[in-house]
Design goal:
about 200 residues, Glucose Permease (Domain IIA), 9-stranded antiparallel sheet, two-stranded antiparallel ribbon, 15 strands
Amino acid sequence: MRNAAIVFFIAAIIAGVFETRADRRVALAAAYAPAIANVPATTALSTRSETVQGDDVVIPVAGIRREQLRPMFNDARTGHVHHALDILAPRGTPVLAAVDGTVRKLFTSGPGGLTIYETDPEQNNIYYYAHLDRYADTLAEGMPVHRGDVIGYVGTTGNAPPGTPHLHFAIMLLPPTKEWWKGDPIDPYPILMQRGRTIGSLLPQ
């Protein structure tokens, strides 16, 4: 049912049904509402986690499991292709570093709101976390982070629908010149489905 609603939403954009950006946000929130309803409305991070080892990549929202992810890399967005993964969770859910690396840039933009750009140790890829409610208190540019570290919290900053808190997560292959704002998009979904590990769980408070 949810998939049908999202397909209708995308088709409506293409057909020009929504007259304003506000109309599009309301429709998108409605399309995702059933998924939000199935997420526990809690934000406490437990100490229970799977062992992270080898080439594991942490699913970057606390308590989210592989089976809760949905492919959407090639989904249509207004004026562009999505090229990312949206992970729905209650506002304030911890956002976790997917890989070991360094916080390259903390940036606020119109589309992404509060964002984090993290590089891996080899500076091959950028890991992009967007629509954050806030950063972790001690987070700073140039700081090393480890897989599973709390770096921020799920929100709706930027152009995210106000009633649909989620993490917009993207991976980009950096060019040889290593500019953090450039890169070729890589689909996070198959990576997380193959190597993703859940850290923490959402518990009643």
